[in-house]
Amino acid sequence: MNLWWCGAMKGKSSNMPCCFERESPALKQILLKLYHAEKPVEIDHHLYEFGSVEYYVQSSAADPHHSFLSVLTPLLSQGEIPSNGPLSPYTIQMVKDICSESAEVVEPAREGYQLTLKLNFSMIPKSKESEKVVRRIASVQAVIISSQLKEIFRGVDSHGTFQPIKLVYYPREPFYLIRQPQKITAVFPMRFKEHSDVVIATAFFQELMDVGSSAKWAKTPTCTWAPIPPPELRGESIEDLSTNGGFVSFDICSRHVEGKKLEKTVWTLLNFYAFVKNHIKCTRGLIQRRMQKRLESLVEVLHKGAMEEDNKVKRRRGGRYIRKLVSLSKFKTLKRRCSDIVNKIKRLRYRIKIHGFNRFRRRWLTLPKFSSSRGYSRLE
Amino acid sequence: MQASSLRLYLTCIRNTLEAAMCLQNFPCQEVERHNKPEVELKTSAELLLNPVLICRNEAERCLIETSINSLRLSLKVKQADELENILTKKFLRFLSIRAEAFQVLRRKPIQGYDISFLVTNYNCEEMQKQKLIDFIVQFMEDIDKEISDLKMSVNTRGRLVATEFLKQFL
User: Fold this and answer.
1) This prediction's pTM
2) A253, closest residue in chain B (CA to CA)
3) Which of B126, B139, B156 lies nearest to residue A13, judging by beta carbons?
4) Among B79, B78, B73, B76, which Cα is nearest to B116's?
5) What domains can you pick out in chain A, each with its CATH number?
6) Where found in the cell (chain A) (predicted)?
């Protein structure tokens, strides 16, 4: 799952997410490089993302018009761990729809991969639309994942109630789809490592409920948060239902999945866990920044008082010091300063008393005396 | 009503500090050539004064312990809900870790309290007593204000993020 922010600054609340981009940025960069290359390029790249998604891009100078893209991605599974099984016909059809003429599904896929696409960059029109096409190809992994959920949501208007469907994308983070008359409820059990995360998340879920229940947002899916699991999940395993962040539910109706909204709804639900984690991370950053700023202002207040006191003392003493300097000659002033430094060093040394050190000090560590033009040094 | 009770609370603390902050140098009676804050050691009862506990309500209180050469002030800050609880803990822990910047702040609060100050006779010699008291009282006001601001920021951010999230469905 690709989590790339295109955030916008909004006053005090910075780093606000606008959307999660579907395309893989590394894959997009490689495909654009291939598309814009004037000469045939030899490419043999393996890309790994998030530890489980793998891309293999191959392009040969011998066949400049065609490149191959193979994809391996964990699928939404109904077991404990995500599976890397073959793709359903519906998923293959969804992939064909996004790629249109510029890509062709190769059957069978390359060994070790679920899908191999044969890309023909010469079929991509040379216009502003070219980047859009490349981005659609780079979002093939998102299409594969969303297609499974789309298949389930296509039957949202069916009558009757079915057993909850458990879907696992990230290990240990399953979510449930409960088919009910005229709607499908997506239930997300929320778990967090730290207690502070639980509190921040709970505050966020309550805001989500408040905002969602207002008249302005009546068209969005109804969102509810509860500390206990909904009654429909009572038969599920206790490990999956033990949480510290409660359960967030979204009621998806047919109006949320008609036309282009299906893509958005599916993508938003798939990214819900990542969205919440990112919000918690940004909130902690916000708290940290505020605390740092407040610390600086508090320390400034304390030091300001101390500095005012120092300045007053310095101003009082300043006059006497200047008078003393004026009366003495420059040479005598310098000599007096040097002798002060020497005395200070001597005092520092005398603090540490080592037996036999005095003789050593007198022999090797004495500072040279300043010679005077009037005096003379006796020759031995 | 709340503002007036806060004023009374702070005034009481200020008056107590003015009376208690009469500190003088006193070498340690237990170990020669040592000079320790007696309020921390509590070995000699004759050097300690009676501690004063000032309570604004059940949740907010201030403990002032005095000795001949040092004074310890411990504060318990109000925490209305879980969010204020974690924000208070985070913020005061943040300040306590950086106690050297404040000189009079204790790195670890006394048990049962959220933050503690330790003022010694040396601090009183280096800084003006009145300014020190003003700083402590101002600190208490600022803490309350900062926790409230932090809570509002977190809730405001949550609301904006929730709005952005729900826009995805439109």
Assistant:
1) 0.75
2) B169
3) B156
4) B73
5) 21-153 (3.30.1460.20)
6) Cytoplasm, Cytoskeleton
